[in-house]
Amino acid sequence: MRDSALLKILLIAFVFWGCSSKDKKETSQKEVKNSYDEPSSIIAGKIINRQVYPHINVLKLTIPDFEGNQRVYTSKINELGEFKFKIHPITNREIKLYPIEDIIVIAPGDSIYIVKDFKSITTTSFSGDRASLNANISSFINTYLGRYPTNYQQGNIAFKNYCDKEKSKNYRGLIEFQKRHAVSDEFNNWVIKKIEFDYCAALFHYSFQHYIRTKQKNEDPVKYYAFINELETHVDNSVVMSDYFEISDKFVSYQLQTLRKKYQKEIERKDTINHLIIKDIFSTPTNNYLAQLTVCSYFHIYLKANRTKLVEDNIDWINEKIKNPFLKKNLEERYNKVLGYNKNPKLFSDAILGNTNLELNPAVKLKTTTKENLVQKIIAENRGKVVYIDFWSVWCPPCLHSMRHSKHLMLHFADKEIEFVFVCINSTEDAWDKKIEELKIGGSHFYCDVEETRAIKNRFKFSGVPYYLLINKKGVIVDYGLHLSPRGEYVKEEIEKLIKE
Protein backbone atom coordinates (compact mmCIF):
# COMPACT_ATOMS: atom_id res chain seq x y z
CA MET A 1 0.00 0.00 0.00
CA ARG A 2 2.92 2.27 0.74
CA ASP A 3 4.28 2.38 -2.83
CA SER A 4 0.88 2.62 -4.51
CA ALA A 5 -0.04 5.55 -2.27
CA LEU A 6 3.25 7.22 -3.15
CA LEU A 7 2.57 6.66 -6.86
CA LYS A 8 -0.79 8.43 -6.51
CA ILE A 9 0.94 11.37 -4.87
CA LEU A 10 3.55 11.53 -7.63
CA LEU A 11 0.95 11.41 -10.39
CA ILE A 12 -0.97 14.25 -8.75
CA ALA A 13 2.13 16.24 -7.83
CA PHE A 14 3.24 16.57 -11.43
CA VAL A 15 0.00 18.36 -12.29
CA PHE A 16 0.74 20.94 -9.63
CA TRP A 17 4.39 21.46 -10.50
CA GLY A 18 6.39 22.74 -7.57
CA CYS A 19 7.46 26.38 -7.73
CA SER A 20 11.20 26.52 -8.37
CA SER A 21 13.33 29.16 -6.75
CA LYS A 22 15.66 31.28 -8.87
CA ASP A 23 18.27 31.33 -6.13
CA LYS A 24 19.99 28.00 -6.79
CA LYS A 25 23.61 29.09 -6.50
CA GLU A 26 23.69 29.50 -2.76
CA THR A 27 23.95 25.80 -1.88
CA SER A 28 27.23 24.97 -0.24
CA GLN A 29 28.97 22.02 1.34
CA LYS A 30 32.53 20.99 2.01
CA GLU A 31 34.35 18.87 -0.51
CA VAL A 32 32.91 15.36 -0.64
CA LYS A 33 35.31 12.45 -0.48
CA ASN A 34 34.61 9.76 -3.04
CA SER A 35 35.91 6.46 -4.33
CA TYR A 36 35.80 7.12 -8.05
CA ASP A 37 38.24 5.25 -10.25
CA GLU A 38 38.03 7.89 -12.99
CA PRO A 39 40.83 10.46 -13.36
CA SER A 40 40.46 13.61 -11.31
CA SER A 41 40.26 17.05 -12.90
CA ILE A 42 41.84 20.28 -11.70
CA ILE A 43 40.25 23.72 -11.96
CA ALA A 44 42.63 26.39 -10.67
CA GLY A 45 43.16 30.06 -11.26
CA LYS A 46 43.63 33.55 -9.99
CA ILE A 47 41.42 36.56 -9.25
CA ILE A 48 42.97 39.95 -9.94
CA ASN A 49 41.70 43.34 -8.75
CA ARG A 50 39.86 41.70 -5.86
CA GLN A 51 39.35 45.11 -4.27
CA VAL A 52 36.44 45.67 -6.67
CA TYR A 53 34.44 42.94 -4.88
CA PRO A 54 36.27 42.52 -1.54
CA HIS A 55 33.40 40.55 0.01
CA ILE A 56 33.99 37.61 -2.39
CA ASN A 57 36.53 35.39 -0.65
CA VAL A 58 35.14 31.92 -1.45
CA LEU A 59 34.32 30.28 -4.79
CA LYS A 60 31.74 27.52 -5.16
CA LEU A 61 31.98 24.84 -7.81
CA THR A 62 28.76 22.95 -8.50
CA ILE A 63 28.45 19.71 -10.45
CA PRO A 64 24.80 19.70 -11.60
CA ASP A 65 22.84 16.47 -11.24
CA PHE A 66 19.37 15.13 -10.60
CA GLU A 67 17.69 17.24 -7.90
CA GLY A 68 19.11 16.53 -4.47
CA ASN A 69 22.20 14.81 -5.87
CA GLN A 70 24.31 17.84 -6.83
CA ARG A 71 27.84 18.10 -5.49
CA VAL A 72 29.16 21.46 -4.33
CA TYR A 73 32.83 22.15 -3.60
CA THR A 74 34.26 25.30 -2.02
CA SER A 75 37.67 26.92 -2.29
CA LYS A 76 38.90 29.94 -0.41
CA ILE A 77 40.65 32.65 -2.40
CA ASN A 78 44.08 33.13 -0.81
CA GLU A 79 45.98 36.39 -0.31
CA LEU A 80 47.41 36.15 -3.84
CA GLY A 81 43.94 35.71 -5.30
CA GLU A 82 44.53 32.04 -6.08
CA PHE A 83 42.05 29.16 -5.86
CA LYS A 84 42.04 25.45 -6.71
CA PHE A 85 39.52 22.60 -7.03
CA LYS A 86 40.07 18.89 -7.51
CA ILE A 87 36.95 17.06 -8.69
CA HIS A 88 35.85 13.82 -10.36
CA PRO A 89 33.50 14.76 -13.21
CA ILE A 90 33.13 11.06 -14.25
CA THR A 91 32.22 12.04 -17.82
CA ASN A 92 32.34 15.06 -20.16
CA ARG A 93 29.98 17.52 -18.49
CA GLU A 94 29.09 21.06 -17.51
CA ILE A 95 30.00 22.54 -14.15
CA LYS A 96 29.29 25.94 -12.58
CA LEU A 97 31.87 28.13 -10.86
CA TYR A 98 30.12 30.82 -8.82
CA PRO A 99 30.49 33.77 -9.13
CA ILE A 100 32.97 33.47 -12.02
CA GLU A 101 31.30 31.36 -14.72
CA ASP A 102 27.82 29.87 -15.10
CA ILE A 103 29.03 27.15 -17.50
CA ILE A 104 32.37 25.42 -17.91
CA VAL A 105 32.77 22.15 -19.82
CA ILE A 106 35.25 19.70 -18.37
CA ALA A 107 36.23 16.06 -18.89
CA PRO A 108 37.95 13.51 -16.63
CA GLY A 109 41.67 14.25 -16.47
CA ASP A 110 41.35 17.86 -17.63
CA SER A 111 43.39 20.66 -16.11
CA ILE A 112 41.94 24.14 -16.57
CA TYR A 113 43.46 27.45 -15.46
CA ILE A 114 41.24 30.53 -15.17
CA VAL A 115 42.12 34.19 -14.71
CA LYS A 116 39.28 36.55 -13.77
CA ASP A 117 39.70 40.31 -13.56
CA PHE A 118 37.03 41.76 -11.27
CA LYS A 119 37.37 45.07 -13.13
CA SER A 120 36.08 43.28 -16.23
CA ILE A 121 33.60 40.81 -14.79
CA THR A 122 32.29 39.66 -18.19
CA THR A 123 35.73 38.60 -19.44
CA THR A 124 37.42 35.37 -18.38
CA SER A 125 40.76 34.04 -19.57
CA PHE A 126 41.16 30.25 -19.97
CA SER A 127 44.26 28.15 -20.52
CA GLY A 128 44.95 24.43 -20.37
CA ASP A 129 42.52 21.79 -21.59
CA ARG A 130 39.43 22.96 -23.53
CA ALA A 131 40.59 26.59 -23.24
CA SER A 132 39.21 27.61 -26.63
CA LEU A 133 35.89 25.80 -26.04
CA ASN A 134 35.31 27.44 -22.65
CA ALA A 135 36.39 30.86 -23.87
CA ASN A 136 33.78 30.65 -26.65
CA ILE A 137 31.12 29.39 -24.24
CA SER A 138 31.87 32.28 -21.88
CA SER A 139 31.69 34.85 -24.69
CA PHE A 140 28.47 33.41 -26.09
CA ILE A 141 26.72 33.25 -22.71
CA ASN A 142 27.50 36.92 -22.12
CA THR A 143 25.24 37.87 -25.04
CA TYR A 144 22.75 34.98 -25.05
CA LEU A 145 19.70 35.13 -22.76
CA GLY A 146 17.84 31.94 -23.66
CA ARG A 147 14.79 33.05 -21.70
CA TYR A 148 11.17 32.96 -22.79
CA PRO A 149 9.38 35.40 -20.44
CA THR A 150 5.59 35.15 -20.09
CA ASN A 151 2.70 35.96 -17.78
CA TYR A 152 1.21 32.50 -18.48
CA GLN A 153 -2.04 34.00 -19.79
CA GLN A 154 -1.73 33.33 -23.54
CA GLY A 155 -2.87 30.04 -25.06
CA ASN A 156 -0.40 27.17 -25.42
CA ILE A 157 -0.11 27.38 -29.20
CA ALA A 158 0.33 31.16 -29.08
CA PHE A 159 3.15 30.70 -26.59
CA LYS A 160 4.73 27.99 -28.75
CA ASN A 161 4.63 30.31 -31.78
CA TYR A 162 6.34 33.00 -29.71
CA CYS A 163 9.02 30.49 -28.60
CA ASP A 164 9.58 29.40 -32.21
CA LYS A 165 10.32 33.00 -33.18
CA GLU A 166 12.62 33.51 -30.21
CA LYS A 167 14.52 30.31 -30.98
CA SER A 168 14.99 31.43 -34.58
CA LYS A 169 16.32 34.74 -33.26
CA ASN A 170 18.77 32.84 -31.03
CA TYR A 171 20.04 30.86 -34.02
CA ARG A 172 20.55 34.06 -35.99
CA GLY A 173 22.58 35.36 -33.06
CA LEU A 174 24.62 32.15 -33.10
CA ILE A 175 25.39 32.57 -36.81
CA GLU A 176 26.68 36.08 -36.15
CA PHE A 177 28.77 34.77 -33.24
CA GLN A 178 30.28 32.04 -35.45
CA LYS A 179 31.32 34.68 -38.00
CA ARG A 180 33.29 36.61 -35.36
CA HIS A 181 34.92 33.68 -33.54
CA ALA A 182 36.95 30.62 -34.44
CA VAL A 183 34.60 27.89 -33.19
CA SER A 184 35.09 24.13 -33.04
CA ASP A 185 32.73 21.25 -33.69
CA GLU A 186 32.70 20.68 -29.92
CA PHE A 187 31.43 24.22 -29.36
CA ASN A 188 28.79 23.91 -32.11
CA ASN A 189 27.57 20.67 -30.56
CA TRP A 190 27.30 22.32 -27.15
CA VAL A 191 25.65 25.56 -28.31
CA ILE A 192 22.97 23.87 -30.42
CA LYS A 193 22.05 21.70 -27.43
CA LYS A 194 21.90 24.81 -25.23
CA ILE A 195 19.51 26.66 -27.55
CA GLU A 196 17.30 23.62 -28.07
CA PHE A 197 17.12 22.64 -24.40
CA ASP A 198 16.22 26.17 -23.27
CA TYR A 199 13.41 26.11 -25.84
CA CYS A 200 12.17 22.66 -24.74
CA ALA A 201 12.34 23.52 -21.05
CA ALA A 202 10.22 26.63 -21.61
CA LEU A 203 7.54 24.64 -23.45
CA PHE A 204 7.47 21.80 -20.92
CA HIS A 205 7.16 24.32 -18.08
CA TYR A 206 4.54 26.54 -19.70
CA SER A 207 1.80 23.98 -20.30
CA PHE A 208 1.61 23.01 -16.62
CA GLN A 209 1.88 26.53 -15.25
CA HIS A 210 -0.66 27.91 -17.75
CA TYR A 211 -3.22 25.32 -16.63
CA ILE A 212 -2.57 26.00 -12.94
CA ARG A 213 -3.17 29.72 -13.40
CA THR A 214 -6.01 29.72 -15.94
CA LYS A 215 -7.55 26.20 -15.75
CA GLN A 216 -7.51 26.21 -19.55
CA LYS A 217 -6.49 22.92 -21.14
CA ASN A 218 -3.97 22.64 -23.95
CA GLU A 219 -6.03 23.28 -27.10
CA ASP A 220 -3.81 21.18 -29.38
CA PRO A 221 -1.43 18.93 -27.39
CA VAL A 222 -0.26 16.99 -30.46
CA LYS A 223 0.94 20.16 -32.18
CA TYR A 224 2.26 21.66 -28.97
CA TYR A 225 4.36 18.64 -27.93
CA ALA A 226 5.73 17.99 -31.42
CA PHE A 227 8.99 19.53 -30.16
CA ILE A 228 9.69 16.26 -28.30
CA ASN A 229 10.60 14.61 -31.60
CA GLU A 230 13.23 17.30 -32.14
CA LEU A 231 14.45 16.92 -28.55
CA GLU A 232 15.36 13.30 -29.22
CA THR A 233 17.88 14.31 -31.90
CA HIS A 234 19.90 16.47 -29.49
CA VAL A 235 20.25 14.31 -26.37
CA ASP A 236 23.37 12.14 -26.39
CA ASN A 237 26.33 11.25 -24.20
CA SER A 238 28.87 13.54 -25.91
CA VAL A 239 28.52 16.00 -23.02
CA VAL A 240 26.22 15.89 -19.98
CA MET A 241 24.51 19.27 -20.01
CA SER A 242 23.11 20.79 -16.82
CA ASP A 243 19.81 20.99 -18.71
CA TYR A 244 19.68 17.19 -19.09
CA PHE A 245 18.42 16.74 -15.56
CA GLU A 246 15.65 19.34 -15.76
CA ILE A 247 14.61 18.19 -19.24
CA SER A 248 14.45 14.52 -18.27
CA ASP A 249 12.48 15.36 -15.12
CA LYS A 250 9.93 17.31 -17.14
CA PHE A 251 9.84 14.69 -19.86
CA VAL A 252 8.99 12.05 -17.23
CA SER A 253 6.24 14.25 -15.80
CA TYR A 254 4.78 14.65 -19.29
CA GLN A 255 4.85 10.89 -19.78
CA LEU A 256 3.27 10.27 -16.37
CA GLN A 257 0.36 12.49 -17.31
CA THR A 258 -0.24 10.55 -20.50
CA LEU A 259 0.03 7.26 -18.58
CA ARG A 260 -2.25 8.36 -15.76
CA LYS A 261 -5.43 7.60 -17.70
CA LYS A 262 -3.97 4.49 -19.31
CA TYR A 263 -3.19 2.89 -15.96
CA GLN A 264 -5.94 4.39 -13.80
CA LYS A 265 -7.39 0.96 -13.01
CA GLU A 266 -4.01 -0.60 -12.32
CA ILE A 267 -2.77 2.00 -9.83
CA GLU A 268 -3.86 -0.08 -6.84
CA ARG A 269 -2.02 -3.12 -8.21
CA LYS A 270 1.28 -2.12 -6.70
CA ASP A 271 2.98 -5.31 -7.88
CA THR A 272 2.58 -4.41 -11.56
CA ILE A 273 1.96 -0.68 -11.94
CA ASN A 274 5.54 0.52 -11.56
CA HIS A 275 6.91 -2.13 -13.88
CA LEU A 276 4.37 -1.11 -16.53
CA ILE A 277 5.21 2.57 -16.16
CA ILE A 278 8.97 1.96 -16.23
CA LYS A 279 8.59 -0.13 -19.38
CA ASP A 280 6.53 2.59 -21.07
CA ILE A 281 8.86 5.42 -20.02
CA PHE A 282 11.85 3.48 -21.36
CA SER A 283 10.24 2.45 -24.65
CA THR A 284 8.68 5.84 -25.56
CA PRO A 285 11.84 7.61 -26.82
CA THR A 286 13.50 6.21 -29.94
CA ASN A 287 16.79 7.63 -28.62
CA ASN A 288 18.27 4.93 -26.35
CA TYR A 289 20.37 7.39 -24.31
CA LEU A 290 17.30 9.57 -23.69
CA ALA A 291 15.38 6.41 -22.72
CA GLN A 292 18.04 5.55 -20.12
CA LEU A 293 18.16 9.16 -18.89
CA THR A 294 14.40 9.46 -18.44
CA VAL A 295 13.92 6.13 -16.70
CA CYS A 296 16.79 7.01 -14.34
CA SER A 297 14.95 10.27 -13.66
CA TYR A 298 11.88 8.21 -12.71
CA PHE A 299 13.93 6.12 -10.28
CA HIS A 300 15.37 9.33 -8.84
CA ILE A 301 11.83 10.60 -8.17
CA TYR A 302 11.34 7.66 -5.79
CA LEU A 303 14.78 8.00 -4.31
CA LYS A 304 14.08 11.69 -3.72
CA ALA A 305 11.08 10.44 -1.71
CA ASN A 306 13.53 8.32 0.31
CA ARG A 307 12.18 5.06 -1.13
CA THR A 308 14.60 2.34 -2.29
CA LYS A 309 12.13 -0.49 -2.98
CA LEU A 310 11.51 0.49 -6.61
CA VAL A 311 15.21 0.15 -7.39
CA GLU A 312 15.47 -3.10 -5.45
CA ASP A 313 12.44 -4.61 -7.20
CA ASN A 314 13.84 -3.74 -10.64
CA ILE A 315 17.55 -4.42 -10.17
CA ASP A 316 17.67 -7.09 -12.90
CA TRP A 317 15.89 -4.77 -15.33
CA ILE A 318 18.28 -1.91 -14.43
CA ASN A 319 21.33 -4.10 -15.04
CA GLU A 320 19.93 -5.15 -18.40
CA LYS A 321 18.73 -1.74 -19.69
CA ILE A 322 20.91 0.94 -18.07
CA LYS A 323 24.18 0.52 -19.95
CA ASN A 324 25.61 4.05 -19.83
CA PRO A 325 28.36 3.99 -17.13
CA PHE A 326 27.65 7.51 -15.89
CA LEU A 327 23.91 6.94 -15.47
CA LYS A 328 24.41 3.55 -13.82
CA LYS A 329 26.99 4.90 -11.34
CA ASN A 330 24.81 7.96 -10.67
CA LEU A 331 21.79 5.79 -9.81
CA GLU A 332 23.88 3.47 -7.66
CA GLU A 333 25.32 6.36 -5.64
CA ARG A 334 21.92 7.95 -5.02
CA TYR A 335 20.46 4.58 -3.99
CA ASN A 336 23.27 3.96 -1.48
CA LYS A 337 22.87 7.47 -0.08
CA VAL A 338 19.14 7.01 0.53
CA LEU A 339 19.67 3.50 1.88
CA GLY A 340 22.14 4.88 4.40
CA TYR A 341 19.71 7.62 5.45
CA ASN A 342 16.84 5.17 5.92
CA LYS A 343 19.01 2.90 8.05
CA ASN A 344 20.02 5.78 10.30
CA PRO A 345 17.99 8.99 9.80
CA LYS A 346 19.39 10.37 13.06
CA LEU A 347 22.86 10.58 11.53
CA PHE A 348 21.55 12.77 8.71
CA SER A 349 19.30 14.73 11.03
CA ASP A 350 22.13 15.52 13.44
CA ALA A 351 24.38 16.61 10.60
CA ILE A 352 21.79 18.86 8.99
CA LEU A 353 20.67 20.37 12.30
CA GLY A 354 24.14 20.76 13.77
CA ASN A 355 23.53 18.47 16.76
CA THR A 356 26.71 16.41 16.35
CA ASN A 357 28.95 18.76 18.33
CA LEU A 358 26.37 18.99 21.07
CA GLU A 359 26.37 15.22 21.52
CA LEU A 360 30.16 14.98 21.49
CA ASN A 361 30.61 17.93 23.83
CA PRO A 362 27.57 18.92 25.94
CA ALA A 363 29.29 22.18 26.87
CA VAL A 364 28.98 23.46 23.29
CA LYS A 365 26.07 25.85 22.84
CA LEU A 366 24.68 25.89 19.30
CA LYS A 367 23.14 28.91 17.70
CA THR A 368 19.35 28.65 17.73
CA THR A 369 18.38 31.99 16.30
CA THR A 370 15.81 32.00 13.51
CA LYS A 371 18.41 33.17 11.02
CA GLU A 372 20.92 30.44 11.79
CA ASN A 373 18.70 27.40 12.33
CA LEU A 374 14.96 27.95 12.52
CA VAL A 375 14.13 24.25 12.33
CA GLN A 376 16.34 23.47 15.32
CA LYS A 377 14.49 26.19 17.23
CA ILE A 378 11.11 24.71 16.24
CA ILE A 379 12.19 21.23 17.32
CA ALA A 380 13.51 22.50 20.67
CA GLU A 381 10.16 24.18 21.39
CA ASN A 382 8.16 21.04 20.53
CA ARG A 383 10.04 18.20 22.21
CA GLY A 384 7.78 15.21 22.73
CA LYS A 385 5.64 16.11 19.72
CA VAL A 386 5.65 15.04 16.10
CA VAL A 387 6.40 18.10 13.95
CA TYR A 388 5.21 18.58 10.36
CA ILE A 389 6.88 21.56 8.64
CA ASP A 390 5.59 23.09 5.40
CA PHE A 391 7.91 25.47 3.52
CA TRP A 392 5.82 27.65 1.20
CA SER A 393 5.59 30.98 -0.63
CA VAL A 394 2.65 33.35 -1.06
CA TRP A 395 3.02 33.37 -4.88
CA CYS A 396 3.17 29.56 -5.25
CA PRO A 397 -0.18 28.03 -6.46
CA PRO A 398 0.78 24.42 -5.53
CA CYS A 399 1.68 25.61 -2.01
CA LEU A 400 -1.67 27.32 -1.51
CA HIS A 401 -3.60 24.40 -2.98
CA SER A 402 -1.85 21.98 -0.60
CA MET A 403 -2.47 24.18 2.42
CA ARG A 404 -6.21 23.70 1.96
CA HIS A 405 -5.59 19.99 2.48
CA SER A 406 -3.47 20.79 5.54
CA LYS A 407 -6.64 22.08 7.23
CA HIS A 408 -8.22 18.64 6.87
CA LEU A 409 -5.05 16.98 8.12
CA MET A 410 -4.99 19.25 11.16
CA LEU A 411 -8.62 18.45 11.94
CA HIS A 412 -7.88 14.74 11.67
CA PHE A 413 -5.07 15.06 14.23
CA ALA A 414 -6.79 17.54 16.54
CA ASP A 415 -5.74 17.01 20.19
CA LYS A 416 -2.93 14.68 19.14
CA GLU A 417 0.76 15.17 19.93
CA ILE A 418 1.66 16.93 16.70
CA GLU A 419 2.55 20.50 15.75
CA PHE A 420 1.88 21.85 12.26
CA VAL A 421 4.38 24.56 11.30
CA PHE A 422 4.25 26.77 8.20
CA VAL A 423 7.46 28.55 7.17
CA CYS A 424 7.05 31.24 4.50
CA ILE A 425 10.11 31.89 2.32
CA ASN A 426 10.86 33.92 -0.82
CA SER A 427 8.05 36.36 -0.06
CA THR A 428 7.50 39.78 1.49
CA GLU A 429 6.33 40.19 5.05
CA ASP A 430 3.29 42.29 4.06
CA ALA A 431 2.19 39.69 1.50
CA TRP A 432 2.68 36.96 4.13
CA ASP A 433 0.53 38.79 6.69
CA LYS A 434 -2.22 39.29 4.13
CA LYS A 435 -2.13 35.69 2.91
CA ILE A 436 -2.21 34.20 6.43
CA GLU A 437 -5.30 36.30 7.19
CA GLU A 438 -6.88 35.10 3.96
CA LEU A 439 -6.06 31.41 4.51
CA LYS A 440 -7.35 31.32 8.09
CA ILE A 441 -5.28 28.26 8.86
CA GLY A 442 -4.11 27.23 12.32
CA GLY A 443 -0.73 25.95 13.41
CA SER A 444 2.47 27.91 13.96
CA HIS A 445 3.66 30.40 11.34
CA PHE A 446 7.10 31.86 10.62
CA TYR A 447 8.22 34.40 8.06
CA CYS A 448 11.78 34.35 6.69
CA ASP A 449 13.45 37.32 5.04
CA VAL A 450 15.90 36.98 2.15
CA GLU A 451 18.88 36.11 4.33
CA GLU A 452 16.90 33.65 6.45
CA THR A 453 15.46 32.04 3.32
CA ARG A 454 18.96 31.56 1.92
CA ALA A 455 20.16 29.99 5.19
CA ILE A 456 17.26 27.51 5.23
CA LYS A 457 17.70 26.47 1.61
CA ASN A 458 21.44 26.08 2.11
CA ARG A 459 20.86 23.87 5.12
CA PHE A 460 18.23 21.59 3.58
CA LYS A 461 19.40 21.85 -0.05
CA PHE A 462 16.07 22.33 -1.76
CA SER A 463 15.39 24.76 -4.58
CA GLY A 464 11.59 24.87 -4.89
CA VAL A 465 8.43 24.92 -2.84
CA PRO A 466 6.35 23.35 -1.44
CA TYR A 467 8.79 21.29 0.57
CA TYR A 468 8.08 19.33 3.74
CA LEU A 469 9.88 17.92 6.79
CA LEU A 470 8.52 15.24 9.13
CA ILE A 471 10.14 15.08 12.58
CA ASN A 472 9.55 12.46 15.29
CA LYS A 473 9.04 13.04 19.00
CA LYS A 474 12.77 12.76 19.65
CA GLY A 475 13.53 15.63 17.28
CA VAL A 476 14.88 13.48 14.43
CA ILE A 477 14.04 14.36 10.81
CA VAL A 478 12.69 11.00 9.63
CA ASP A 479 11.44 12.07 6.19
CA TYR A 480 11.57 15.06 3.85
CA GLY A 481 10.50 16.12 0.37
CA LEU A 482 7.54 16.92 -1.87
CA HIS A 483 6.03 13.44 -1.41
CA LEU A 484 4.98 14.49 2.10
CA SER A 485 2.24 16.68 0.63
CA PRO A 486 -0.91 16.79 2.84
CA ARG A 487 -3.07 15.86 -0.16
CA GLY A 488 -2.56 12.09 0.04
CA GLU A 489 -3.09 9.31 2.57
CA TYR A 490 0.61 8.59 2.70
CA VAL A 491 1.59 11.44 5.00
CA LYS A 492 -1.40 10.75 7.26
CA GLU A 493 -0.26 7.14 7.68
CA GLU A 494 3.31 8.21 8.41
CA ILE A 495 2.20 10.75 11.03
CA GLU A 496 -0.01 8.18 12.72
CA LYS A 497 2.95 5.80 13.04
CA LEU A 498 5.10 8.51 14.62
CA ILE A 499 2.38 9.52 17.08
CA LYS A 500 2.11 5.90 18.28
CA GLU A 501 5.87 5.61 18.86
Describe the overall structure:
The chain is an alpha+beta fold and 501 residues long. The strands form 4 sheets. The protein has a 5-stranded mixed β-sheet. A 4-stranded mixed β-sheet has the order 5-2-8-9. It has a 4-stranded antiparallel β-sheet with strand order 4-3-6-7. It starts with a helix and ends with a helix. The chain is globular. Helix 15 packs across helix 18. It folds into 3 domains: 214 residues, no CATH class; 111 residues, Immunoglobulin-like, CATH 2.60.40; 155 residues, Glutaredoxin (3-Layer(aba) Sandwich), CATH 3.40.30.10. It is built from 19 helices and 15 strands.
Largest sheet: 5 strands, mixed
Arithmetic mean pLDDT? 86
Number of helices: 19
The amount of beta strand, in percent, is 15-25%
- Estimated structural class: alpha+beta
- By DSSP, the count of extended strands is 15
Q: Into how many domains do the coordinates divide? A: 3
Q: Which spans have pLDDT < 50 for at least 5 consecutive residues?
A: 8-17, 21-36, 356-371
| Major β-sheet strand ordering | 12-11-10-14-15
Radius of gyration: 23 Å
Question: In angstroms, what separates the terminal alpha carbons?
Answer: 21 Å
Could you say which overall geometry the principal axes of the C-alpha atoms support? globular
Helix content: 40-55%
